């Protein structure tokens, strides 16, 4: 059942927002994309903190905003739990008083402190109740802010880069806690991140944003296996192209013409325009022209060599081939080939390594 429906359009200087998406009741929708793509702007509009030039927001059939009808509820009239990037904790209040603040603002008096205590304890903060933010670690402050957002029992939870300021060593544990809490609470959530690992780890529906628009929406497996835009392909780190199916040679192979060059793929049995994805791990690099069975061989210059997290034992190599490719190889392969930026290499991959789809 759809509970959240949003269509938002706005222009601020050179930046234009035109985003549309939906979320099911009790689910987590992850808005993901690079910095500056409009994710936080969308959250502020959902919260009622900003107003779009045009659009609407509906929650469970209830109109929170419809600019065509002159309706735009302010934040105080929306049942929202909000966790901004800067957390916005009151520095002069203890953890428990920070969490109780929203309850008191909502008119809950004597029960506010008890509910705040329960919320903090549920997130493992039994011993930090009376500490002020300056005396808490980054992860503890994050949990206080999350408790404050949840304690008011919102109908919509908005989380803006909740792990961005956390030490990497603590990030995995807090990510697991967030995933568990969201599954238990079953509150409809919009979660903003620019991290592919974070987005995929949460396991919810993804909406990829690029330059103010949602360019692809679906489950993580959809995005990983069949990206449908350059932005989605770049986000998951795969080679992505748009092309046209052309020559079939009778051997089960077909040529695909892209704006940057031709690829040879196993015939998908389609016609016309297609998307093409190539896993960087399928690409083999060599100094000399390869003599194997690979049907796609390109020569080009290495433009970037970048270790892959978390250990850097695999390396991404960007190539100025036509079409431009990114390969992922082991550190040992880099050393054996003596690869450096500017070196000339051959990149080869089999026709069956290409995924062509519509």
Overview of this protein structure:
The protein has helices at residues 39-47, 95-105, 112-122, 138-151, 168-185, 196-202, 220-225, 230-236, 331-337; strands at residues 2-12, 15-24, 28-32, 54-59, 62-66, 71-72, 80-83, 156-160, 188-193, 205-210, 213-218, 239-248, 253-258, 261-266, 273-278, 284-286, 296-307, 314-319, 325-330, 344-349, 354-357. Helix 3 (112-122) crosses helix 4. It has a six-stranded mixed β-sheet with strand order 7-8-9-3-10-11, with helices on both faces. Strands 2-1-4-5-6 form a five-stranded antiparallel β-sheet, with helices on one face. It folds into two domains: 2-230, Rossmann fold, CATH 3.40.50; 237-357, OB fold (Dihydrolipoamide Acetyltransferase, E2P), CATH 2.40.50.100. The mean pLDDT is 92. It is built from nine helices and 21 strands. By secondary structure, it is of the alpha+beta class.
Measured as a percent range, the helix fraction is: 25-40%
Q: Strand order, biggest sheet?
A: 7-8-9-3-10-11
Specify the structural class: alpha+beta
Q: Output the number of helix runs.
A: 9
Which spans of ≥5 residues are poorly predicted at pLDDT below 50? none
Strand content: 35-45%
For the structure shown, list the relevant keywords.
21 strands; single chain; OB fold (Dihydrolipoamide Acetyltransferase, E2P); six-stranded mixed β-sheet; 358 residues; five-stranded antiparallel β-sheet; Rossmann fold; 2 domains; elongated; alpha+beta
In short:
The protein is 25% helix and 37% strand. It is an alpha+beta fold and 358 residues long. It starts with a strand and ends with a strand.
């Amino acid at each position: 059942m759809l509970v959240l429906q949003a269509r938002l359009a706005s222009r601020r200087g050179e930046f234009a927002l035109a985003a549309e998406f939906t979320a099911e009741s009790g689910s987590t929708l992850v808005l993901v994309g690079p910095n500056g793509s409009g994710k936080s702007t969308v959250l502020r509009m959902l919260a009622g903190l900003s107003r779009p030039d045009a659009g609407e927001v509906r929650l469970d059939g209830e109109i929170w905003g419809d600019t065509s009808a002159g309706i735009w509820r302010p934040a105080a009239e929306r049942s929202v739990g909000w966790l901004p990037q800067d957390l916005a904790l009151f520095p002069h209040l203890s953890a428990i008083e920070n969490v109780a603040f929203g309850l008191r603002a909502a008119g809950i008096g004597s029960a506010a402190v008890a509910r705040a205590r329960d919320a903090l304890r549920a997130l493992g903060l039994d011993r930090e109740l009376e500490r002020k933010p300056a005396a808490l670690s980054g992860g503890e402050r994050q949990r206080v802010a999350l408790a404050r957002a949840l304690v008011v029992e919102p109908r919509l939870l908005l989380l803006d880069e909740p792990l961005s300021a956390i030490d990497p060593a603590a990030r995995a544990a807090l990510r697991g806690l967030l995933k568990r809490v969201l599954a238990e609470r079953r509150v409809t959530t919009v979660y903003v991140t620019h991290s592919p690992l974070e987005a995929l780890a949460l396991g919810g529906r993804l909406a990829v944003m690029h330059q103010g628009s949602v360019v692809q929406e679906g489950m993580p497996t959809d995005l990983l296996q069949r990206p449908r835009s350059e932005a989605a392909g770049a986000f998951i780190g795969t080679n992505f192209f748009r092309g046209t199916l052309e020559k079939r040679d009778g051997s089960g192979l077909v040529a695909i013409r892209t704006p940057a060059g031709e690829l040879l793929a196993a015939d998908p049995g389609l016609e016309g325009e297609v998307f093409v994805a190539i896993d960087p791990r399928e690409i083999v690099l060599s100094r000399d022209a390869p003599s194997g069975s690979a049907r796609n061989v390109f020569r080009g210059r290495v433009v970037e060599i970048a270790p892959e997290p978390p250990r850097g034992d695999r390396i991404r190599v960007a190539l100025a081939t036509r079409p431009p490719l990114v390969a992922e190889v082991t550190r040992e392969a880099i050393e054996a080939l003596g690869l450096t930026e500017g070196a000339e290499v051959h990149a080869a991959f089999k026709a069956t390594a290409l995924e062509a789809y519509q």
